[in-house]
């Protein structure tokens, strides 16, 4: 798979609009172990052969909370779903399942995904539109979930919400656009998440990390890795971070982002490294809008026709949790455009 301390000058900030592979993992994770005795709920069968294990890099690979990395629905039945009713049914069932999305599924509001699920798109046309996926509820945790190779568009609220203490989540090789609120929010004490090789476009608010300025229960949680994502013309929140440390933002491609790239607030600790910023006036903020400043270490980034990044303080090194290999930032635009998004996995 294709798979600082001193503050610098601070550019003027635009107001935030109102709400409306080559990496080296710490462990090799079996992502989709498919059973040959599959349950099939539509005429379209999922791939018959078990796929080789694919590694996840970043915080989703860390062993913690009694969970050894992120395995999703490995070991459970493989099911093809073609309707909203089927998706809601199987995503909410206890135990592991590998759910294959076939074609376009229109849903409304949010479907709750509970623990030990892999939700994978078949081919390059798998789509969830009109609504989104919420990982877990206050009574049914959404831990150990994998979401890959799906186009999310037109959500009434968030496209994906990782919430309610969900941990060990891998969101990889998806396409996000044209939602009503956030494209991908991670909040409410969730932890150990990797967001990799996704494309984000035709939207304003891309990635929120942290519920609000007053939700201090997030302190000590929200450890997230964002790598090899393409932020193509999205305005802001790539991500916007509150309280979390460390947050690792590496080898992402930012292009034509009107308001800002990354914002660290409320004493969050964010490492921004090896990214490529193209035509981004405010690539990195320390503090934003009404939020208090966070901390940022930035290194080895390229700022092509972009502004001066802000940096302040020190940040816990993500390498204390997991190993990774950093791509040359000069290669990031080509690598990310070739590898990010749907239809790249051979499913």
What does this structure look like?
The chain is mainly beta. The protein has a single domain, classed as 3 Solenoid (Pectate Lyase C-like), CATH 2.160.20.10. 5% of the residues lie in helices and 32% in strands. It is built from two helices and 27 strands. It has helices at residues 84-91, 332-339; strands at 63-64, 67-68, 78-81, 97-101, 104-113, 117-121, 127-135, 145-148, 151-153, 160-162, 167-172, 175-177, 184-186, 191-196, 199-201, 207-209, 224-227, 230-232, 240-242, 247-250, 253-255, 262-265, 269-273, 276-278, 284-286, 295-299, 302-304. The strands form three sheets. The protein has a 15-stranded parallel beta sheet that branches. Helix 1 (84-91) links the parallel strand 3 (78-81) and strand 4 (97-101). The longest helix is centred in the N-terminal third of the chain and has 8 residues, at 84-91. The protein starts with 62 loop residues before the first strand and ends in an 8-residue tail after the last helix. 57% of the residues are buried. Residues 1-44 and 48-53 have low confidence and may be disordered. It is an enzyme of class 4 (lyase). Belongs to the polysaccharide lyase 1 family. Residues 74-283 form the Pectate lyase domain.
């Amino acid at each position: 798979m294709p798979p600082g301390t001193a503050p610098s000058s601070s550019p003027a900030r635009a107001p935030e609009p109102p709400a409306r592979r080559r990496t080296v993992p710490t462990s090799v994770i079996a992502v989709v172990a498919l059973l040959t005795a599959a349950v099939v709920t539509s005429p379209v069968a999922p791939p018959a052969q078990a796929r080789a294990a694919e590694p996840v890099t970043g915080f989703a690979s860390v062993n913690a909370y009694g969970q050894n990395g992120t395995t999703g629905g490995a070991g459970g039945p493989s099911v093809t779903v073609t309707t909203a009713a089927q998706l809601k049914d199987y995503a909410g069932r206890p135990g592991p399942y590998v759910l294959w999305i076939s074609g376009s599924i229109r849903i409304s509001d949010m479907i709750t995904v509970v623990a030990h699920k892999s939700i994978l798109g078949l081919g390059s046309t798998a789509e969830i539109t009109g609504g989104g996926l919420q990982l877990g509820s206050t009574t049914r945790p959404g831990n150990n979930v994998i979401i890959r190779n799906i186009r999310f568009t037109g959500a009434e609220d968030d496209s994906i919400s990782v919430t309610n203490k969900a941990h060990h989540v891998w969101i990889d090789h998806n396409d996000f656009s044209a939602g009503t609120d956030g494209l991908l929010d991670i909040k409410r004490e969730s932890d150990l998440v990797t967001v990799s090789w996704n494309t984000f476009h035709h939207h304003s608010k891309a990635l929120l990390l942290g519920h609000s300025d007053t939700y201090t229960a997030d302190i000590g949680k929200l450890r997230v890795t964002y790598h090899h994502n393409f932020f193509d013309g999205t305005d802001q929140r790539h991500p916007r971070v509150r309280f979390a440390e460390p947050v690792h933002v590496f080898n992402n491609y930012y292009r034509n982002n009107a308001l800002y790239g990354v914002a660290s607030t409320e004493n969050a600790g964010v490492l921004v490294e090896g990214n490529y910023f193209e035509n981004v006036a405010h690539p990195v903020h320390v503090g934003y809008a009404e939020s208090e400043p966070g901390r940022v270490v930035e290194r080895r980034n390229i700022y092509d026709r972009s502004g001066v990044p802000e940096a302040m303080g020190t940040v816990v090194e993500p390498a204390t949790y997991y190993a990774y290999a950093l791509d040359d930032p000069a290669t990031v635009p080509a690598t990310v455009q070739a590898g990010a998004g749907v239809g790249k996995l051979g499913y």
